[in-house]
User: Fold this.
Amino acid sequence: MDNNKRPDTMERITTKALADAFIDEQVAAVRAQVGDKKVLLALSGGVDSSVVAALLVKAIGKQLVCVHVNHGLMRKGESEQVVEVFQNQLDANLIYVDATDRFLDLLKDVSAPETKRKIIGGEFIKVFAEEAGKLEGISFLAQGTIYPDILESDGVKAHHNVGGLPEDMEFELVEPVKLLYKDEVRVVGSALGLPDEMVNRQPFPGPGLGVRCLGAITRDRLHALREADAILREEFDNCGLSEKVWQYFIAVPDFQSVGVKDDKRYEGWPAIIRAVNTVDAMTATIEEIPYPVLHKITDRITNEVDGINRVLLDLTPKPIGTIEWE
Ligand code: XMP
Assistant:
């Protein structure tokens, strides 16, 4: 039997009862596979790796070692949430690595988007491999592979994802959600007790804010981007758009314009709002954000975020614009 093929008879997991049955089945399967050995997992805080972590904590408790690498390009509060949920609430074995300086030092003065991606991806593997090398007795590597990853054998996700280990580190894989579609992974995550904001998290690129802080990243502009993005998310939560819009974020380009603040000349960067809807991210349409919401967001970002003096709205569908700016 092909282990990577979803059986035609497998029911779509849409309810808590079906999710619970799946969880029981996988807990038993993981215990049988792993025995008393240790399993390593790169926990990004995204839906897939979070659900795998919660499932494995249930199955094997402290035999699971999670490593969360904060590359300094996470959204506001995300790394903190990973620590809160997994270390404090689920009592998981979590190694938190703040590698912000390593990443930002390497990215200094680098403006080509693909070079930025390569640096972030390469350094991520390096940091993760270093942590793995410090651990003893790891026999398995858990991964949040889901069924679309297997179906998209053109390697789109492989190319997108920053995770993964060098070829010479060989572990047997544990992939408990590899036959599930995304919506099922979310139902399973809720059944495992993960918070809604984690389970319903919008897609977030592996290189994170690195591809939204356009051009060569500077710490002050990255900070401004993170704060502006947090305001956008808060206001989308307040007006219900966060439940409706597929992906929304701020991009901050590396040029300034003239403005005026407190009667003085105020040069600042623009914050660009992007809010798109799509089914498969291959094409995307623009969400029509009500003007009062746009005014509120503009007002808050320009008043609360140091360094931003204008707010712009990106109205470009994909094609011709990609979803991300880089
Ligand atoms: P684009 O910009 O190509 O994005 O229209 C399509 C979807 O893919 C996400 N994306 C990435 N995801 N690493 C990732 O893991 C990346 O380098 C990357 N670039 C784009 C993007 O956020 C959107 O959901």
About this structure: DSSP finds eleven helices and eleven strands in the chain.
